[in-house]
Design goal:
The complex is a heterodimer of chains A (about 325) and B (about 240). Helices cover about 80% and strands about 0% of the residues of chain A. Chain A is an all-alpha fold and about 325 residues long. Chain A has one domain: Orthogonal Bundle (ABC transporter involved in vitamin B12 uptake, BtuC), CATH 1.10.3470. Chain B contains seven helices and ten strands. Chain B starts with a strand and ends with a helix. The chains are: A mainly alpha (about 325), B alpha/beta (about 240). At the A-B interface, helix 10 and helix 11 of A face helix 2 of B.
Chain lengths: ~325, ~240
């Protein structure tokens, strides 16, 4: 009983991804033609400066926008289903904060291992996962959807206070490294880091698809799903793991990016009008990628005048949208 | 069929003791009793949400401890007192959850699964709802869908927790009549908890009256008998 409308919208969303990537390509400081772009990929020459530019800056930035947008939207969808709460998301529930706190700890600890790529990624993943476990424990005791949100925000304030204390205690070098990280940007990723990022991203997508049946069942509530034979605690742990993997990965490389994980899953659900996660996963990946590519394109447009942090920009669009959802749901 | 042998039910302290009780297939039982007397605890103990304190419970001649946890949804279906509906969840997708104990890891429906769904949809006359959202239909229609989902689970036992609580008189009457018909026709054991003694008597359900830490199984035609039985507790404690 698949309606034709859903695949139709998904195909359009899929086509929007290369289109927004193209927009992203043309809005940069230096104009890049499609011709240059493809020749840089297929016949790369190290002495061609525009090839180097494309390979070192353009491609990583476009790919990371797709990964970050799709990944954050997907992890937001997972959290909204897990908590049965349309207001859940990696940012508002403090998953990013947990990652930030551990990244701050590791950057300012002074050990060089923790300053390396692997060090930051592991710190972010562990921080994200611990925050997720904490929020899950809280959610067990709180029934109200709004209260959970407040606890998440309080947790965010608490961790940022801890981070401030850490900042005031740490040396200049570590402080600079951390401040740069928190700015949130899609430009810090290097070409060599891409395989690792893409690998984790694809693992996250693959695992989400394996969980389609439990995710669908969770929509009618944990208790009902449990009575239909779903192993709740196992599923909860898995979903939280994937969420932390995706949100932690993206937070590690791009810094905290707000509201994508909250706004895009709601938008996807409204557009697709379904609760079948087979479609929702795809929709979130496509719409998330398009959303972040377009946001970053706008940032590029103004990059000569001001360096806008991506986090500020997603909040400007995302926060009003969340208010809209609140007004719609909880009159 | 459900058989109780020397069963103690409760959280840490026993709330109800059942020396021996057999509930037959083909019948609908009305579980009544004052608020907080242990009706929900009783139902939750049967579906395994609350472990039995002692004794043996048999579901269709099978001891409950021998039934695997993932097999239990093929034996008992449970209908909650209220399903509020979920935005964008279609009635068809909701009904299809009833097949989830039988479907593979991706939840894809086989042609047999679809046939089961179609038969129940026909029996309950809800074909016109299939494409609608569960959040957009009326309370009565939603409760009917919840019952349909339980039937689609094709279990020999169905438990319903106050299924009539949020329905108007006509819908209550319709629902109870439907359950009686299903129990007889499909040879199922059905228990519903309720505060609506009138409707249970009108449809001549057998009563399970929870009072004084016991369960009394009885057939009554006079409301006063049930009330007197339920009051025993109050009289004793005062």
């Amino acid at each position: 009983m698949i309606k034709k409308r859903i695949p139709f919208i998904l195909v359009i969303a899929l086509l929007l991804v290369p289109l927004s990537a193209f927009i992203h390509l043309t809005t940069g400081e230096i104009y890049v033609s499609l011709n240059d772009f493809f020749s840089a990929i297929f016949e790369f020459k190290g002495n061609n400066s525009s090839h180097v530019l494309i390979r070192e800056f353009k491609i990583p930035r476009i790919l990371i926008a797709i990964v970050a947008g799709g990944g954050l939207a997907l992890s937001g969808m997972l959290m909204q289903t897990l908590f049965n709460n349309p207001l859940a998301g990696p940012y508002v529930l403090g998953i990013n904060s947990g990652a930030s706190l551990l990244v701050a700890l590791s950057l300012m600890s002074g050990f060089s291992f923790f300053g390396s790529d692997i060090g930051i990624i592991s710190a972010a993943l562990i921080g994200a996962f611990l925050a997720g476990i904490l929020m899950m424990a809280v959610a067990q005791r709180i029934r109200s959807q709004i209260s959970l949100l407040l606890v998440g925000l309080m947790f965010g304030s608490f961790t940022s206070a801890l981070v401030s204390i850490l900042e005031s205690l740490s040396g200049e070098g570590a402080l600079k490294a951390y401040t740069l990280w928190t700015m949130g940007s899609l430009q810090q990723v290097e070409f060599d880091q891409l395989p690792l990022i893409l690998f984790i991203f694809i693992c996250g997508i693959f695992l989400s698809f394996i969980l389609i049946k439990p995710l669908n069942m969770l929509v009618i509530g944990e208790r009902s799903a449990g009575l239909l034979g779903l192993k709740i605690s196992q599923v909860r742990f898995l979903i939280m793991g994937i969420t932390a993997l995706l949100a932690g990965l993206i937070t590690a490389f791009c810094g905290p990016i707000a509201f994508v994980g909250l706004a895009v899953p709601n938008l996807t659900r409204i557009l697709l009008r379904t609760q079948n996660h087979r479609w929702l996963i795809l929709g979130n990946l496509f719409f998330g990628a398009v959303f972040l590519l377009l946001c970053d394109s706008i940032i590029q447009l103004f990059s000569e005048q001001i360096a806008l942090p991506i986090n500020a920009f997603t909040s400007i669009i995302g926060a009003p949208f969340v208010v809209f959802i609140l007004m719609r749901k909880l009159k | 069929m459900i058989r109780f042998e020397q069963i103690e039910i409760g959280y840490s302290k026993p709330l109800i003791f059942i020396p021996s009780l057999t509930l037959d297939a083909g019948k609908v039982y009305a579980l009544v009793g004052r608020n907080g007397i242990g009706k929900s605890t009783f139902l939750n103990s049967i579906i395994g949400q609350i472990p039995l304190l002692s004794g043996n419970l048999f579901l269709n001649e099978q001891a409950v401890q021998n039934i695997l946890k993932i097999e239990l949804p093929k034996v008992i279906a449970y209908v909650e007192s209220r399903f509020d509906g979920v935005e964008y969840l279609s009635v068809f997708d909701y009904l299809a959850f009833g097949r989830s104990p039988y479907t593979n890891n991706f939840g894809s429906l086989s042609s047999d699964d679809i046939q089961v769904i179609q038969e129940v949809v026909k029996d309950l006359n809800i074909a016109h709802l299939l494409e609608k959202c569960t959040s957009e239909i009326s309370d009565g229609e939603r409760q009917l869908c919840a019952v349909a989902r339980a039937l689609i689970q094709t279990t020999p036992i169905i438990l319903l927790d106050e299924p009539t609580a949020f329905l108007d008189y006509l819908n209550r009457q319709k629902l109870v009549q439907l359950l009686v018909l299903i129990a007889e026709k499909q040879h199922k054991t059905i228990i519903l908890s309720s505060h609506d003694i009138d409707i249970c008597i009108e449809n001549s359900l057998e009563f399970l009256i929870v009072s004084e830490k016991k369960i009394l199984k009885t057939k009554v035609s006079d409301k006063q008998v049930v009330i007197r039985e339920m009051e025993k507790d109050v009289l004793k404690s005062s």
